[in-house]
Structures are given as C-alpha cells and as structure tokens.
Design a protein that fits this description.
With about 260 residues, this protein is α/β, with parallel strands linked by helices. It has one domain: NAD(P)-binding Rossmann-like Domain (Rossmann fold, 3-Layer(aba) Sandwich). The protein contains 8 helices and 7 strands, in the order βαβαβαβαβαβαααβ. Strands 3-2-1-4-5-6-7 form a 7-stranded parallel β-sheet, with helices on both faces. Helix 5 links the parallel strand 5 and strand 6. Helix 3 runs parallel beside helix 4 and helix 4 packs parallel to helix 5. The protein is globular and about 45 Å long. The model has no long low-confidence stretch (mean pLDDT about 95). InterPro entries: NAD(P)-bd_dom_sf, SDR_fam. This is SDR family NAD(P)-dependent oxidoreductase. GO terms for molecular function: oxidoreductase activity.
Length: about 260
C-alpha cells in the first residue's frame, strides 16, 4: 500500500466501513488504520485473518462485526456496537456493493430487489443510523462509494448502474438536509479498479486494454488509488466540500 498524507483530525476518529475486509474496502480500512483511526467494519465472511494482518502491518486492530448489510436491523446493530466500542461514528464509508454482470432481459424481481438492497438501501439505512450520533457530536462525514458506470451509459449490469445513479442523488439530499448540523456527504466515483474479484469473475486482458485506452492515465487502477480521495473527504481538509462527486477513474469521464 502507498504512503498517504496524514490527516491529524482522523487520529482517534470513529470510522465505520461497510465491506471493509476485501477489495477496495480492505485498502480503505488499512488507510484509516494508518491514520490512527478507530475502525469498525462489516462483511458477511469471516475477517479474523484480515484483522490480524492489519494489526501486524499498522499496529492498529480494526473491529470486525459480522453482518449482512441487506439485514437492516443487523446493520443498525453493528453500527451501535461500533459506537459503543469507539464512540459515535464520525466517518461513515458506505462501500459494500455487488456489480454482478447479467443480461437485462433475464433479470427477475427477486434479483432486482436483492441488488437494490445491497447497492442502495444499505447506504440509506447506514446513514440514517449514524446521523443522530453525528448531530450530537457536532458534525461528521459520510462518503458513499458510487461508480462512473451510469455516467458512461454502460450496460451489462442495469440494477447496479441504477443504484449508483441513486447513490449520487442520496448523497446530495443528505448533504442538503444535514448540512446545518455540519454533516457532510460526498460520493466517490471509481472507474475500473482491478480487484481480485474482478479478475476472477469477468475482467479480461482485452477489457483492461480497452479501459486503459479510454483513460487519460495509461495504467490500471488499484484499490489503493481510491484511498487518498476517501481520506481527504473524511477529513477536515475537505471541510467546505459537500454534495459533490469525486471521480477517481484515471480520466475517463469529465465533470465541471
């Protein structure tokens, strides 16, 4: 993992990350641990070995809370447990997602509902659960991991693309509603980030080459490339920034 700038206000901060033990989430967990943050994360599979490795590498052990984020009651219970262990959540990173590929004409209602539950509903209810604590603490930062997929008119995973468009809308309405409480909400929009899951499931050398051709930066993007932007949005370095979408895609789409 690269060395990232240190943001002093993140030292000791209570951070909650969904899907924090694998893929982009694992690098985010490590990034916050290196800041000295008190990190709690959830995922379905056991993360004991990952926690051991993080403690060895950073000297700071994360709190792993087993949870299926589509179980709203379980997600809220995990956030409550994190607050009891580390203090009210000051930084929420909604990261867990499932970008499973599929044919649009083969999607049934159950698949659609399951995809929304993972990729959008959990984001809302995690935010709803942390906001009262942020209000009481005088502020906080919500960072929602989205995607450039809906900005590209992409295809092959319609519910995921739809959910990511919704994440941007959710981010903006949270920013507007809770800005008076000094709660900021921003989205991070990755491009094609090469993870083990992507390589196992569908990412081919041809796909990678085509994506790099679309990028201004002619290299693959790794999960570590997402860490600096998320740390910035979580910290007071971005104190005046809210309701924004930060694109980290190597220069595929342009904003502004």
């Amino acid at each position: 993992m690269s060395d990232h700038p240190i943001f002093p206000d993140l030292a000791g901060a209570s951070v909650f990350i969904t899907g924090g033990g694998s893929g982009i989430g694992a690098d985010l967990t490590e990034g916050f641990l290196q800041q000295g943050s008190r990190v709690a994360f959830v995922q379905r599979s056991d993360a004991s070995a990952f926690c051991n490795e993080m403690e060895r590498r950073t000297g700071n052990r994360p709190l792993f809370l087993p949870c299926d984020i589509t179980d709203t009651a379980g997600l809220k219970s995990a956030i409550e447990a994190a607050a009891q262990a580390h203090g009210p959540v000051r930084v929420l990173i909604n990261n867990a997602a499932n970008d499973q590929r599929h044919e649009t004409l083969e999607i049934d209602e159950a698949f659609w509902d399951a995809s929304m539950a993972i990729n959008l509903k959990s984001y809302f209810f995690a935010a709803q659960a942390v906001i009262p604590g942020m209000q009481a603490a005088g502020g906080g930062s919500i960072v929602n991991m989205s995607s450039i997929s809906y900005m590209m008119a992409d295809c092959g995973y319609a519910p995921y693309i739809t959910a990511n468009a919704g994440i941007t809308g959710l981010t903006r309405t949270l920013a507007r509603e809770f800005g008076p409480d000094n709660i900021r909400a921003n989205a991070v929009m990755p491009g094609m980030v090469v993870t083990d899951r992507q390589l196992e499931k569908w990412l081919t050398p041809e796909n990678m080459e085509a994506q790099i051709d679309r990028q201004c930066l002619k290299r693959t993007l790794s999960p570590d490339d997402m860490v600096g932007g998320v740390l910035f949005l979580a910290s007071s370095a971005s104190a005046a920034m809210t309701a924004q979408a930060l694109v980290l895609d190597g220069g595929v789409v342009t904003t502004g």
